[in-house]
Design brief:
four-stranded mixed β-sheet, about 15% strand, about 30% helix, single chain, about 270 residues, binds manganese (II) ion
């Protein structure tokens, strides 16, 4: 019995199937957690969704492209590579599955006691794991019960920094932006959402460079996708980036949590 965390699929269905074969994925015993962004960019987003929908042992955290799809579905507007999904005959089933996926998943490995904290983009160091979980739950609750309220409110890059007193649209938007779009952070955990490269602008650092040393003692591993240009290079074993750019003709990567082994297939 193994658990695998797999990086951003972006419609790379054939590569997903090849990776599942390579890891000898056993539907009866194993579990798969995806780092989000299942759709868009690549050729077979609908196949990816239908495959995940049919297998109860596969789940995902939500990525920014998944949320964009949910938004298009909520206004019944197909666009580009997502048109096929918006118009799919089982679109309601897809919507209901995707909208109930969390922003944050925590798992522990029984034999090693290693703890894995899985999000699409990451968690800013100003939030403890407990705080991050509370905020993720807060958004998920509204996403499930009043989806259009969040799906319409989440667009935009402001506010830049977290503030506990934020309410309503601004609060939802910044929580979602941290969990699904963050790369670089500056003073007071200010987001720089424009920079998608690996080179920080003045005053900013990758979000995982703000870590405290206690992570190591606690055997905690932050696992994320989203930042394809990093190609998995964080230079810190406690921050594991799994987006290795499959949709840009790179690789699709799985992390086996039992032994921290990474297994990849080429595009
Ligand atoms: Mn993303």
């Amino acid at each position: 019995m193994s658990t695998y965390i797999i990086g951003d699929l972006h419609g790379c269905f054939d590569q997903f199937i090849r990776l599942l074969k390579k890891i000898n994925y056993d539907k009866q015993k194993d579990q798969i957690i995806l780092t989000g962004d299942l759709v868009n960019r690549g050729p077979k987003s609908l196949d990816v969704l239908n495959y995940c929908l049919a297998d109860k042992n596969i789940t995902t955290v939500l990525g920014n492209h998944d949320l964009y799809l949910l938004y298009l579905m909520s206004i019944k507007q197909g666009k580009g590579k997502l048109r096929k999904i918006v118009k799919a005959e089982n679109n309601k089933e897809i919507f209901d599955w995707l909208i109930t996926r969390p922003l944050l998943i925590q798992i522990s490995d029984q034999s090693t006691n290693n703890k894995f904290i899985i999000t699409h983009a990451g968690i800013p160091e100003i939030w403890s794991i407990e705080k991050a979980q509370d905020l993720a739950n807060e958004v998920s609750k509204t996403l499930t019960n009043n989806s259009s309220k969040i799906l319409k409110a989440m667009w935009g890059d402001d506010p830049k920094s977290w503030n506990e007193s934020l309410t309503g649209k601004e609060r939802y938007r910044i929580i979602i932006n941290y969990f699904t779009r963050m790369r670089f952070l500056g003073n007071k955990a200010a987001l720089d959402l424009k920079n998608t490269s690996t080179k920080a602008s003045k005053g900013f650092k990758p979000w995982f460079h703000y870590e405290s040393s206690s992570y190591k003692k606690m055997k905690q591993y932050y696992v994320f996708g989203h930042w394809a240009s990093l190609n998995g290079q964080t230079n810190n074993p406690h921050f594991i980036g799994l987006d290795t750019g499959c949709t840009w003709k790179g690789k699709l990567t799985a992390l086996r949590v039992d032994d921290l082994e990474k297994i990849s297939v080429k595009y």
